[in-house]
Amino acid sequence: MSLRYALLALLNVEPMTGYDLYKQFESSVGYVWHAPDSQIYPELRRMERDGLLQGEEVPWGTKGRKRQYHVTDAGREAFRTWVNTQLDYPRERDPIHLKAAYLEWAEPEAARQQLQAHIEHYGARLLQWQQKIEEIDGGTSDMLNRRLATVPDVDHQRVAAFKRFTYEGLTARAEQEIAWARRGLALVDSLYP
Amino acid sequence: MSLRYALLALLNVEPMTGYDLYKQFESSVGYVWHAPDSQIYPELRRMERDGLLQGEEVPWGTKGRKRQYHVTDAGREAFRTWVNTQLDYPRERDPIHLKAAYLEWAEPEAARQQLQAHIEHYGARLLQWQQKIEEIDGGTSDMLNRRLATVPDVDHQRVAAFKRFTYEGLTARAEQEIAWARRGLALVDSLYP
DNA sequence: CGTCTCATGTAAGGAGTTACATGATTTA
DNA sequence: TAAATCATGTAACTCCTTACATGAGACG
Fold first, then answer.
1. In this structure, which of A5, A87, A112, A131 has its CB flanked by the most CB atoms within 10 Å?
2. Which nucleotide lies nearest residue A65, CA to C1'?
């Protein structure tokens, strides 16, 4: 259900086509929420059916057409309700930690490789998220700048602050995961001298 | 696909029925991986069909019957392969952080409540996970003790160490989430004086 | 003229949730 | 004997993944 609100969030800034949204999910917003095109296009149609979006056919080139969606009042209201509503926390279900509990079954070398991969995975994410923070601080974030253009100056600080807060949480998580995996590597070394 | 290996992990310790496994997922193991009965029973049948488990009808009371599953050689081999194989990391998809990025749309009070709920959610998890660590350290973990009974003494330390390592990662994550939400509360206070 | 990007889909299947359904056994 | 626990399912639905499919426009 979050996909719906991720789409509303992006379309609140400006009208876009499914493809525009798909690209956003591949890059910027995709570092917080990812969705493939095969999920985006049907969801946009459902959202229009439910009255949250209004689509408009616009010409593209001489023969081409594309469908641009903008958020309706009902859509803005639904989004506002979502941000104000407590969401349910899913039950725990983490493949990495599940496997970590049974690493005594693994070859030491395989255990090391997987912990190393964990470090690399979160290392790459960390760089991306840190870069987002730098963009926010430097005022070079395209998406944020477009969003800021639609709100009064007095609210700019607030809008930017929550974006920064989000990426701070993600970088802290990444750092924690890296630290944990490093402790895991040390543990493997100590158990298999 | 992880459900399959969570089930194998539990059945590696001793044969169990679907209901036994369901209870484990409701309590102990459930703090790392949860699954409802409606997912467990069909998966057990699929695993038997695939030769990873062997089920056996055992009488229960006078008229009742239950099906007890034990892991086959193929099942143990599949589990060993799983722990040795690098798993794919899913793309980022986190409803909490997605929403955090748009908290400027929320009422300050609603924002506070949701951050508070985040603290309470991870606070409760933290206690559960810390308790698991204490059980491991104190030798009072039922599941771990049964598992240790099946391996040579020299491996005991190793088996326990990885269980502890898992819960250390989860507690560190919980503490990080709590710290993040606390910063969020301070941020809301500073933005809406 | 070929390749990359833009643009929009369908189809099959896996994983998980929620709700519904049934009956035996044990225990207070 | 009523309630809790043990035991095992089905059915409908949502969400997501992977793969397949097609065609126009832009650029070099």
1. A5
2. C7
